[in-house]
Amino acid sequence: MIVPLLLGAGIGLGLMVIAAGIWPPKPSLADELAALHAPPTSAPLASFAAPAETAGWAARLGRPAVPLLEAAGLPRTSVRADLAVLGRPPQLHLAEQAATALAGLFLPPLVAALTALASLHWGWTLPLWIALALAAGGFLLPDLAIHTEAGRRRAEFRHALSSYLDLVVISLAGGAGVQAALHSSAQIGTGWANHRIRDALQEAALTPGLTPWQALGRLGAELGITDLTELAATVSLAGTEGAKIRTSLRARAASLRGHLLADLDAAGASATERMSIGVVALFAAFLLFLAYPAISHVLTGL
């Protein structure tokens, strides 16, 4: 009797540790405010890449399977865009996918072997199917995790892009040229989004034949941010056909702010709906508590 209890407690503790690693606790408000006022580092892009020596155990465990996954055409294009937003190497992501798949594959046989010591036999069919299901789920779990995080990063980039457009419009109103306004406005903002815009413009300045708007278009395609590619198309149109760039950029900034406000309203409405789920669950449990004596009496009488 004690052995099954210890095995169950160990499995439950392991599941809690796995859940804590997948869904870490959110930082406090004080930490978030301190991060906002933290001074910028001298190398803002240094945190985008994870060197091999600082990679976690999952990356080190799944590293041998990376060439096979790359030969199979992984990661997909959408996953590559998410990794570009997060500044994470594709090889590191593939190694983590391989490690989580192996963990899901070997967990059910290990549990079955431990329970067999307590005279609980499950056969081999059920652990096999569970192992295959957990392996598939473990392989897809990193994709889902980075997709959610990349969505938050893209929303952050869109907020920074809206401020950047306002600065460009102000520079154009002051008499600056298009390229000068793009470069000077990028030097003002801080944060990873402004650094990526600044690096794209710097690449255009150092590459012969590459215009700043083409560099911004490449960055938008790499990160999967359509607002940036549309901005590049607007600036390119102004550079080749003499459109009213200031009016176009002002309209683009207003449209982007409208989309951001709509997304915030939708997120608030969704959070409100999720808050009502707990009340509905409590009400359903209360009704079940009231109805249980009558139902039990009827069933006992039958």
UniProtKB/TrEMBL annotation:
Bilayer-spanning residue ranges: 6-23, 126-146, 277-295
Membrane topology of this protein: Multi-pass membrane protein
Pfam families: T2SSF
Cellular localisation: Cell membrane
InterPro entries, per the entry: T2SS_GspF_dom
Keywords: Cell membrane, Membrane, Transmembrane, Transmembrane helix
Span of domain Type II secretion system protein GspF: 165-293
Predominant location: membrane
Coiled coil: none
Protein name: Type II secretion system F family protein
Organism from which the protein derives: Cryptosporangium minutisporangium
